[in-house]
Prior knowledge:
It is built from four helices and no strands. The chain is mainly alpha-helical and 310 residues long. It has a domain of 105 residues. Helix 1 crosses helix 2, helix 2 crosses helix 3 and helix 3 packs antiparallel against helix 4. The longest helix has 243 residues. This is Integrase. It comes from Dyella solisilvae. Pfam families: KfrA_N.
Amino acid sequence: MARGITQDEVNKASDAILAIGENPTVEKVRAALGTGSPNTITRMLDTWRSQLGERLRQLSALPEVPEAVGQAMLELWRLAAGHAERVLEGRLASERAALSTAQAQLAREREHWEARLQAAEIGIAQAQTARDLAEHACRTLDGQLQDSHALRADLVLQRDRLQDQRDQLAGQIQTLRAQLDDNQSALRTERERQEAHIRAVEDRAHQEVDRARQDATQWRQRTDAAERAQRDAASAMQRHRDSANEQVRHLEQDVARQTGQIAALEKALSAARTTTTAKQTASKSLARKVASKRESSKKPASKRKTSNSK
């Protein structure tokens, strides 16, 4: 926070700036003092400038000197004072322009700070709302905290039980690790035995493969011979089949011819059977007639024999 400044401090700072040949301005005085608001410094600079003429007149009171020298010194002082006043008026105009610029800047800063203040008030309202919500959340959390204490106690019990279970499991794990070591040792032994057995089996398999290759070569040779014999037999069988087909064709022709002959013979035989049947019927009829005549001829003869005997 900026501290307050006095008129005496502003006067001393302005005198010091004027002593080095520069025009005391609000910015230079404020820089020299290191504090102070522009409005306050402007007001005190105006007071310093209003007192500057009186101070210069006090300084113009010279000791007793010859009148001509005194008049020359007063004229020189008057000219210097006039020049100084004109310089000061020019500087004052520039300072007033700078002051107007500073005031405009201050107005803009004021608007900016008012906007920030309004935003801060809104933020305060929001913070108040957030605080209310936070207080409500705190009350809720207090209730949850009480519940969490009970839950913590329950969790501690569960932790103790789990700790006991972990100790038991640790013992079981150690036992299982020992069993695992034994099993791994047994597995290594078994693996070595299996590897030896596999090597022996592989050796036998290589031998069997060699024998199988030899057998395959022999079988291939026998197969080639069998295929050649099969081809020869197939050729012979084809020739035999062609010959048999030719014979069958001739036989079929003979059978067809004989079938025709048989049909003719069967027709002739049927006609002959019809004729024979008719002849047999006629012969039987004739035989019955002859027999009847014989019977008729036998009866008168028997009658004559009977009468002769008497």
